[in-house]
């Protein structure tokens, strides 16, 4: 019979020293392979729970009020928020809808990001202006930023390569020394634009 993994309990703390102590404890725990695997196993669920708690408190909802929206009891919300049970897909969908959100699950979590609340209205406005979805706007902005970054890095590499001073920047056909100077960065920048 397979051994059942128990969910690690989440500590609620307000003191920064306690938070730092907990972070240090988790760093020590991660050094143990089996413990690290358990922490990694529950990390996505823990992140989701923290997001739900943050959204619930942002909306000034109690666990009881959220439970009413879901048609369940407060104890079910408490168990969920304290990792007392692993939630099912239907429950997660209901929680997302009750908080005005949309559930998103991916196997590529290391590449997914949550848009900070302060930028969401801008994303929504851009989506309306472009007659598209917020997801499409986020994807488009991310791709544009990555392409711009790649272009900047490529251009910087070209500048580094071309502007490196060389002893003999131009090979001479005759015995005389070359009088050519290596290009200055300003000259390269003006050529590139």
Write up what this structure looks like.
It comes from Candidatus Caldatribacterium saccharofermentans. Residues 178-193 have a biased composition (Acidic residues). The protein has 193 residues and is mostly helical. The protein has two domains: 7-111, 434 Repressor (Amino-terminal Domain) (Orthogonal Bundle); 115-166 and 180-193, no CATH class. The protein has helices at 16-30, 33-58, 63-70, 74-81, 89-98, 117-130, 134-162, 185-192. The longest helix is centred in the C-terminal third of the chain and has 29 residues, at 134-162.
Keywords for this structure?
434 Repressor (Amino-terminal Domain), 193 residues, 8 helices
Proper CATH architecture of the largest domain:
Orthogonal Bundle
The CATH topology of the largest domain comes to 434 Repressor (Amino-terminal Domain)
Count of separate DSSP helical elements: 8
Shape: flat
Q: How many β strands by DSSP?
A: 0
Pfam families: HTH_3 (PF01381)
Domain HTH cro/C1-type: 52-114
Region (Disordered): 168-193
Organism: Candidatus Caldatribacterium saccharofermentans
Write the layout of secondary structure elements.
Elements: H1 16-30, H2 33-58, H3 63-70, H4 74-81, H5 89-98, H6 117-130, H7 134-162, H8 185-192
Helix pairs in contact: 3-4, 6-7
Brief summary of the model shown:
With 193 residues, this protein is mostly helical. The chain has 2 domains: 105 residues, Orthogonal Bundle (434 Repressor (Amino-terminal Domain)); 66 residues, no CATH class. It contains 8 helices and no strands.
